[in-house]
Amino acid sequence: MNAQIEKHEDSRLTRLQEILASGALRAAARLLKSLAPAEVAHLLESLPPTQREILWSLVDETCDGEVLLLVTDEVRTDLTRDMSTAEWLAAAENLDLDDLADLVHEMPDTVTREVISALDEQHRKRLESVLSYPEDTAGGLMNTDTVTVRPEATLDVVSRYLRLLGEQMPSDTDKLFVVNRDDKYLGVLPLWKLVSGNPEDSVAEAMSLNMQPLPASMHESDVARRFETHDILSAPVIDQQGRLLGRITIDDVVDIIREEGEHQFMGQAGLSEAEDMFAPVLTSIRRRALWLGINLFTALLASWVIGQFDTVLSQVVALAVLMPIVASMGGIAGSQTLALAIRGIALGQLSGKNARHLLLKEMAVGSLNSLIWAAVIAVIAGIWFNNLTLALLIGTAITINLLFAAISGATLPLILDRIGIDPALAGSVLLTTVTDVVGFLAFLGLATLFLL
User: Fold this and answer.
1) Fewest CB atoms less than 10 Å from the CB: which of 212, 298, 411, 448?
2) Which domains are delineated in the chain?
3) pLDDT given at position 275
4) pTM of the shown model
């Protein structure tokens, strides 16, 4: 099924590129109108800058804002570089309040003031409430457009109230929030209870108390975890006094999960998830130069270790042949543990309190794996070079390196996270250094002791 979707998207992108190349802009505009904002955003990210600029000029103004929110930061900067104030205002006009709050952060200050002043007093206060919280918190993610009811009202009264709201009812409403006269959050009233419940029952009798509200200060990753753990579609957000501020819906959480997944995937290569695939060459060079420089330093460190054993290498050529095996095995084993630890930190499953259990478990796994593969590699090396001593040396070096790899893979992410460095970006570089240096030092050091 996924393959069919990807094939359909590829063909649509190819078709659009052909239309743009032929200059048939009206046909391109018609195609864009048939697409959802997320599909338009995907197409914009998939085009080089010249074609992207043409396509952006054809996007309907009514969905400009949604598209801008869905593209990466760099693509958004590229698209909005020459936008006028009128275009910014048009892009912001049809957005929900939570989406508008996200877009406001990207607007020039003069445009932001105009957007806020164009709102009525109620919406202005709601927007200011969202903007008062950091973007990556529940307060920054929430939408203040909620439907609240009092506990003393009957289900019949609530049903008539919803009918009066009609199309004004917020989208993705699956429950109503029950509050007292001071707007303190009390519980939720699922919509299905309005249908199945006794119309004469009060809200207090039908409401559920099981829905735990989200503090406005809760980090977005914890919000996503709450949604995943409790399998919910929307959740209330409250302030420190317990007053209802707004709600977060599943579509916002999906965006968080996608961004975190992209961050971990790109971080393994030392890149940002916001990087534009078609960014200017100099921009990409500047961004990647730092990690290439760090990698060069670590490679020089490993080379320096090798250089300390030039005597034994010149006399036993087989060591140079077998060295990459030692480093590679350690690197793969360490990467497996590293990925497990980074995932645990991202999901809130790994902390200093249970790190010892992970470390002991990974050391046990590393020890058993090292014994198994050390034996396999020792047999291969012994047959290959007809040298029992060499076979024992490489087997011992593999055992040492895999054990160090397990320890490093489990502890490095925690150390980096503790000192404020992103483990997804720096973990693999440092791990490679450890496994290379330890592997070469163990193998060549043992060879110096027993072969010379």
Assistant:
1) 212
2) 2-141 (1.25.60.10), 148-267 (3.10.580.10), 281-451 (1.10.357.20)
3) 61
4) 0.62
